[in-house]
């Protein structure tokens, strides 16, 4: 029929086709050339080499392939980074090009390339892969991340960090350099080298107590050191002062008070926040618990500080010292200085007695005052007829005289006789008694009719009727008591005495224990001696009061990452000051340095001696204090104790993690 149909053409059909006609009339032929449009062939001889003109770049070249009888539209370039799956890198390379530079690559990574041609039929096959080309390492281009520094002790700081992002490591990390120095000072850095990339913590030790440091971290690889991180600053923890206050001066201002002046220690040796000063005064040879101490708040305005210790013994030598303290504890004391309180008038003479009592004379004897309060210069003795001051006779005696015969008395007359010691400050407390001439005094009788009123937590009022005075005046009243357990066979102890009030008919008895059973009795004393005891009073119980003391021997130990174990010695029963069933403990705990703001827990068992504080933060220092409570109120806080929870695993993993194959097996 004069036609040729070729179906499913392929490249083998390409060629010249000739049609010949043979006939009687003659022969003829015609030819036609067939071209088949197809996918382009793969580019040939692709090569990849490091660029000599650009950093982090690779030069690619290839031979132009057969275009499949249709003009090429573009090339597609794919890349495999560190043996990762192929990915399109450039999708529109101009068809006229046979070379291209690939830049923006990452150091220390290997790259392999392949490309294919595209015409209007479609995308041809990919070329062979180029040889794998590795970029050289470069120093890390970013610092380590998430730098955290925290004071571990007063001479150490813990540093933690994470590696730089993987895309900025620019090679295999070999380790880290940590540099640190005092904040704000033009001093050289100190350097620490961590030679393992897996170590991301470092404890900086041998630092200065309570000092601010600035710290930076950089990573390094085989090509060198990368960028340092931003500075983080952290303080070492507080310590105790290492030097004492200077220029300490002490002087007596009166018979019971000393005045201290001093200069604050150099701040760099305080090793923390100055919490104040302790002024100390103690008698030579006395135990540490007998030291008088006054705490003074710091004064940051004045260069010279002033403080006073009062309530000291009169005319007594003391050693004195001053120390500075911080929250962790006391610093050293300044060198002791000896000082003596001023003289004062003496106390009463002791053992005033009368002997050899005749109608017109008697002998008076006494002993030196127990509280001389100075250098005794002598004694003053005076006597007068009872309630007739115009008959007074006074004599001054040397300090060695301890007896004196009074003469010129009127027979059978009552006299008041007084004796007092003397110092340069004047006459001391009088000791007096009455005596009738020619009538020897006798032992007094016991008081009677004891009645108890005004019962409080710590005192009661005793009303009584004086007993027989023994023909002389009563010089002292003695109060004895059975405490706690009351009965006929229980011991009696002295709880109070009053001197030189012969006309007394009632006494306040202070210093009693709250919520305690008592039974009282009295004696009266004259110049001869002490009377027998009175009949016991009725049994009473003082009123309750809040506890006076905190639990003792408080210790705090680490229990776990989130808990601390607290132990204490419970209050002794005699310190309950109230109903035992209502006694318990109140625990307060808070992060160290938070000024007492925290959580509380109440324990209702008075015999409990331990408690586990839970739900705390990991690796955190806490302060804990304890107080006793009863039905009336709360007692004083104990001194705070400190403890730290244990370290724990990090609460979250590293961020921005990526991984790349570097070889066929790693």
Automatic annotation (TrEMBL):
InterPro entries: FN3_dom, FN3_sf, Ig-like_dom_sf, Ig-like_fold, Striated_Muscle_Regulatory. It is found in: Membrane. It comes from the Eukaryota. Residues 529-540, 648-666 have a biased composition (Polar residues). Pfam families: fn3 (PF00041). Residues 42-138, 143-239, 244-344, 348-442, 446-545, 550-648 form the Fibronectin type-III domain. Belongs to the sidekick family. This is Sidekick homolog 2b (Chicken).
């Amino acid at each position: 029929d004069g036609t040729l149909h070729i179906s499913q053409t392929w490249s083998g059909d390409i060629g010249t086709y000739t049609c010949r006609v043979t006939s009687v009339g003659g022969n003829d032929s015609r030819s036609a050339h067939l071209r088949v449009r197809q996918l382009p062939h793969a580019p040939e001889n692709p090569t990849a080499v490091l660029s000599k003109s650009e950093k982090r770049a690779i030069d690619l070249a290839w031979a132009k392939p057969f275009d499949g009888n249709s003009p090429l539209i573009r090339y597609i370039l794919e890349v495999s980074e560190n043996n990762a799956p192929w990915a399109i890198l450039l999708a529109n390379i101009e068809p006229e090009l046979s070379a291209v530079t690939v830049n923006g690559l990452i150091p220390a990574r290997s790259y392999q390339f392949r490309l294919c041609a595209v015409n209007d039929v479609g995308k041809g096959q990919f070329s062979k892969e180029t040889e794998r080309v590795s970029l050289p390492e470069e120093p890390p281009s970013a610092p380590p991340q998430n730098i955290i520094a925290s004071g571990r002790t007063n001479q150490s700081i813990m540093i933690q960090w994470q590696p730089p992002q993987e895309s900025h490591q620019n090679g295999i990390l070999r380790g880290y350099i940590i540099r640190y120095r005092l904040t704000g000072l033009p001093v050289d850095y100190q350097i620490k080298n961590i030679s393992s990339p897996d170590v991301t913590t470092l404890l900086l030790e041998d630092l200065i107590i309570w000092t601010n440091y600035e710290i930076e971290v950089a990573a390094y690889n085989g090509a060198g050191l990368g960028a340092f991180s931003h500075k983080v600053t952290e303080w070492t923890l507080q310590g105790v002062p290492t030097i004492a206050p200077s220029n300490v001066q002490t002087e007596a201002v009166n018979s019971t008070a000393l005045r201290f002046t001093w200069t604050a220690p150099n701040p760099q040796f305080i090793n923390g926040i100055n919490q104040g000063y302790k002024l100390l005064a103690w008698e030579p040879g006395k135990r540490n618990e007998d030291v008088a101490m006054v705490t003074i708040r710091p004064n940051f305005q004045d260069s010279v500080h002033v403080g006073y210790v009062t309530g000291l013994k009169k005319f007594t030598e003391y050693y004195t010292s001053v120390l500075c303290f911080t929250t962790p504890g006391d610093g050293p004391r300044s060198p002791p200085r000896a000082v003596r309180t001023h003289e004062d008038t003496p106390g009463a003479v002791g053992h005033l007695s009368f002997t050899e009592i005749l109608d017109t004379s008697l002998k008076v004897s006494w002993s030196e005052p127990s509280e001389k309060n100075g250098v005794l210069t002598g004694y003053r003795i005076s006597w007068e007829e009872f309630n007739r001051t115009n008959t007074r006779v006074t004599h001054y005696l040397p300090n060695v005289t301890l007896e004196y015969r009074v003469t010129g008395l009127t027979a059978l007359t009552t006299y008041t006789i007084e004796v007092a010691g003397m110092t340069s400050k004047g006459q001391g407390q009088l000791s007096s008694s009455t005596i009738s001439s020619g009538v020897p005094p006798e032992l007094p009788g016991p008081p009677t009719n004891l009645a108890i009123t005004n019962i409080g937590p710590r005192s009661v009022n005793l009303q009584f009727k004086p007993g027989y005075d023994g023909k002389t005046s009563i010089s002292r009243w003695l109060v004895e008591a059975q405490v706690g357990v009351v009965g006929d066979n229980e011991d009696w102890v002295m709880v109070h005495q009053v001197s030189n009030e012969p006309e007394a008919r009632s006494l306040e008895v202070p210093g009693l224990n709250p919520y305690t059973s008592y039974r009282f009795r009295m004696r009266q004393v004259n110049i001869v001696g002490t009377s027998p005891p009175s009949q016991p009073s009725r049994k009473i119980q003082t009123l309750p009061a809040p506890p006076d003391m905190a639990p003792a021997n408080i210790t705090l130990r680490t229990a776990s990452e989130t808990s601390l174990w607290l132990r204490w010695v419970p209050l002794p029963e005699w310190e309950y000051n109230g109903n035992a069933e209502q006694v318990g403990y109140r625990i307060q705990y808070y992060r160290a340095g938070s000024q007492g703001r925290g959580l509380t827990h109440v324990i209702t068992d008075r015999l409990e001696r331990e408690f586990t504080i839970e739900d705390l933060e990991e690796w955190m220092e806490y302060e804990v204090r304890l107080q006793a409570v009863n039905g009336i109120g709360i007692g004083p806080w104990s001194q705070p104790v400190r403890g730290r929870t244990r370290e724990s695993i990090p609460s979250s993993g590293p961020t921005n993690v990526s991984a790349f194959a570097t070889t066929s097996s790693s």
